[in-house]
Amino acid sequence: MSIFNTPDLMAFRQEVRAFIKERLTDEMVQATRSGLHLDPRIMRAWQATLNQRGWGAPHWPASAGGPGWNALQRYIFEEECAFADAPPGDVLGLFLAGPMIIAEGNDAQKKRYLPKILSGEEYWCQGFSEPNAGSDLASLKTTAVRDGDEWVLNGQKTWLSSGHYADFMFCLARTDLEGKPQEGLTQFIIDMKTPGLTLHPIMTMDEGHSVNAIFLDNVRVPHENVIGEINKGWTYAKDLLARERVNNAQAPRTKRDILELERLAASLKDEHGAPLADQPQVQRRLASLVMDFVALQSAVLRVLASQMRGEEPGPIASTLKIRGSELQQRVTETAMSLLDQAGIVLTPEYGGGLLAPEGNGWLERHLFRRVVTIYAGSNEIQKTIIAKSILGM
To answer: Above 90 in pLDDT, residue 308?
Structure first.
């Protein structure tokens, strides 16, 4: 019997499904289905709806405003949201900034920032990567110099996801130039309206705007916006990146995409009018994706269970990130193979009707997901972490 098929969990799934059916609007569903780069207005509205029900942050402890669910309840909730095409929340606020503030922030920071992350009123971005410090984050050059009750920050950050509509940035900057590269880094909260911040959009190959570059020119940040201890930012960043890598496995939404892929194969016909799903090579390819997904899901659930016990995922998160990101890419590659020329245009407006209705959205996902093996630490870096930390090489 599936671990999800207990009376309590089945009742919980029905409760979640009924709530989503009642409160998720057609506008939200269509926006989610139509593309990856959603209007923040749509995401904020759904987040506010969830927060009203007490479900704004399924993975947060009850003491911080979360519902206090266990790992299986959390997974069921994420799965049902994915199946219903509910908008994603503010990943950077809910999964990164919020948990970091819960773990390392002071009482004033928790009181100020957590409620508005939960309600969707305030969005966050992550100021980590720089032009010459991506996966090698410890080589970052952005500096922060103490000046009385303020810190003065100078430098540049790049690949700033959601920076163009974020209200705040959690930013890693160098506060001590001595010692090892990993030492002397501090986490700051920066209001995105602070003078000295200049944002430049970066358009990705799927014709979307989700990332940016930002320049910091004598940006003054109050000392009260330091998260945790000065020069301990690298420790906090490692925990934060591990959580990000678990989230980037994207198991529930990958399951949804595989189901969509199976429906796509059943709807498309070969030159003889037979469904592509009847072809042995297609069946083998789909079966391979399903088997790899089951393995990924099992691994994710084990990590979620450990997180609910208060344990950090550590280097195991690297394995989830690798397998999850590679699986996401294989799913869209399979879709492109099935669609053939019907999949080579981004939207119905392109190509004079060449795009089959079944193909809508697949090319955008395929192009954008070239990045999933790169962000949150490239997969090559993750393999090095596994070799050193798990295999002892």
So the answer is: no
